[in-house]
Amino acid sequence: MMSPPEIPRVITRVDNRGVFICALNAAAQKAGVHGGMRLSDARSILPDLDNIPEQPDLYDSHLARMIRVMDRYSPWVARDRDLHNTTLNGDAGLWLEITGGSHLFGGEGPFITQILQDMKRRGYAARVAIADTAGAAWGGARCHPGKEADRILSLPTDHAIAAEFPVSSLRLSGDIIALLSRLGLKQLGDITPLPRANITTRLGPDVLLRLDQFYGRLPEHLNFELPDHPWLIKQGFGEPLGDAANLAHAIETLIARLCSDLRNESLGLRRLIVRCTQVDGHTHTITTTTGTPCQSETHILRLLAEKMPGVDTGFGIEQIIVYAPWVEHVAFRQVRLDRQQDDTSDALALAQLIDRINHHLGPNDILYHSAHHASHLPERAVIRQPPTGSIKPERLQDVPLPKRPVRLLEPPEPVDVVEYNSTGSPTRIRWRKMLIDVLWADGPERICPEWWEYLDRDNYAISQMTRDYFRICDQKGRVLWLFRSGHAGQDIWSVHGLFAG
């Protein structure tokens, strides 16, 4: 069954000159409609053209949602503000600063493919290019002749490709582009050989500015999108704080203000950073973390009080920054009128007690519950979860699971096999400098790697990570969990766990 054809549809913007098209779908574009065209002219081509008036608020919400999606690929996202505010072509876009981050997605080509697939899945059409400068990336996304995943421009190596770009890739106004066309300057390769003084005299300063930004000879400052409510409070002091008591009072005031702002938004902090800057530029940073979203300045100050003596005021503290990089929503908490404790108060008190215990133990020794995780790999079958909140089961109920040791060794400890039997199973091994005779062995149980984590590798590379597990019993009655891995013919044996005797 064939899918119905797409209906030509446009979005229009009204100004003092009339009604113009500011966005359109592929069906309308195929019929000859383009951005910036008057609606009356478009209806002469398509009388049944579907017209939707522009809704700026809806547009801004979709743009904000797209920026949040792009945060997956880069924390630095900037919108093309000039085009978003003025263009009628519907080709405004976003810049992503991806320096040092493309390898996380398999390289620059797979990075482009991933973004295009993500946009298509969300219902957006997109064009993506990667370049050394923001101007070159803007032009490459619109004018690069390569395939979608090959739109990568590295200057000056790809100077020949860039020279064939039309002059519209320089983000110039329509009047300047028309003037360049009348002069026969239609590509970048026609402009770059010209004397720079003549370009400025004949065409104005914008052409040379955009050309230098395209090739990286001049910097371009982008306005990156920042969170709407960065939970950060900064306080400077004209007279530096040289007394520990004054410093503690200042921090207490800032944290009370931060907690008040969080309560107004029904949020609670999970991590807090306090940074004190001395007059000579040295800084002292205090970090604390809570197990549940916290809005109580009393509890936070109690956690910070133990670390405050380590702050050296030196010649004086001239600036304090209080920052909550991790906040979460806090459900409404009913307060009883009779001032009696209820379940909510008990849970809150327990969470604060656990925070204080973890604060004393340190980040490496924390309280946790063990919980089941859906993985057949032994080291991933159990995860740690906070002691507060909903508790996941340690194992699935009524599900037959293979035998697993009571103690798992992380990492697995190497073993030297001294003797084998006729089936290839070890009969004598050396582990922890001890010779161990294998009385009996049960196995093998084959455990393969999670193939979806290694999509960039072939089957042979994955087979090298396959493990064959054996349960063996030694002369002292201990039951060890032994496994074999490695290349074919080059077996690597290790002990991964110990069973109960």
Describe the structure.
The chain is an alpha+beta fold. The chain has 15 helices and 20 strands. The protein has helices spanning 26-30, 39-45, 56-70, 81-86, 108-121, 134-143, 159-163, 174-182, 188-191, 196-203, 205-215, 244-264, 297-305, 343-361, 459-463; strands spanning 9-15, 18-24, 50-53, 77-79, 94-96, 130-131, 152-153, 232-241, 267-278, 283-294, 317-329, 369-372, 382-385, 407-420, 426-431, 434-437, 440-447, 467-473, 479-485, 492-498. The strands form six sheets. The chain has a seven-stranded antiparallel β-sheet, with no helix packed on it. The radius of gyration is 32 Å and the shape is extended. The chain starts with 8 loop residues before the first strand and ends with a strand.
